Structure formats: structure tokens, C-alpha cells
Amino acid sequence: MTELKDVLAIKRIYDEAADDDGYRVLVDRLWPRGVSKERARLDLWLKEIAPSPPLRTEFAHMQERFEDFRRSYEVELEQNPAVEQMLELAAGKKRVTLLYGARDPEVNHARVLLEFLLGAGAADK
Known about the structure:
The protein is an alpha/beta fold. It has 6 helices and 4 strands; from the N terminus they run αββαβαααβα. Helix 2 (about 35-40) links the parallel strand 2 (about 25) and strand 3 (about 45). The termini are close together.
């Protein structure tokens, strides 16, 4: 049985799509600027799993707000039915790549989402 940490990955949508990305899921609420649908090579756009608009606006990708953002986003995720949808999807795939548009690979919602999903998947065992 494959572990969730071996299935889930994150990647900027601006990076080239690769065959080993597996099932590609955009987890941003807004479509990323300058990326065509063809170039995105998406299998799913799950905007419902992204932070709420007020939370996203408050965070504004400012590093000094990241820990507060993380806590607030995790609270949202705890009540978000799209989390269960993502976990079910990951259970049936060899690789699921969560795609995001933010510039910073460490300070972004996809990183928080990945860590949350890994924790939720471990809790289900």
C-alpha cells in the first residue's frame, strides 16, 4: 500500500508539466495569469480547497503573516468537504500534484494544504 506522502506533491503551475506529475490538480481559487489551459495540463481545478477570499486577501503572501495564515487556513480546511474529496482522489492514484501560482515555494497555501492532507491521511489510519 502506497503512503500518502509518496502520492502527494506540490509544484508551481508555471513550471513545465512532467509525466511524473501524475494527476494534476490546481488548488488556487483564481486562474493563474499567463497560463493557458493547454499549458496547465490540468486534470482537475479544485478551487473549493483554496483559502477563502478574505483569508487570501489578508495574507497577501506576506511572510510575516504566514503563521497566522496557516492557523486560519487549517481551521477552514478542517470544515472543508473538498479535503475529503482530495484524500479520496489521492487514495486511487500513484501521484497527485497540487499546483499553485504563488512565487514563494515555502510561503504559500499549497504547502499548508499538503501538510494538512498528510496529517489528515495519517489520522485516517
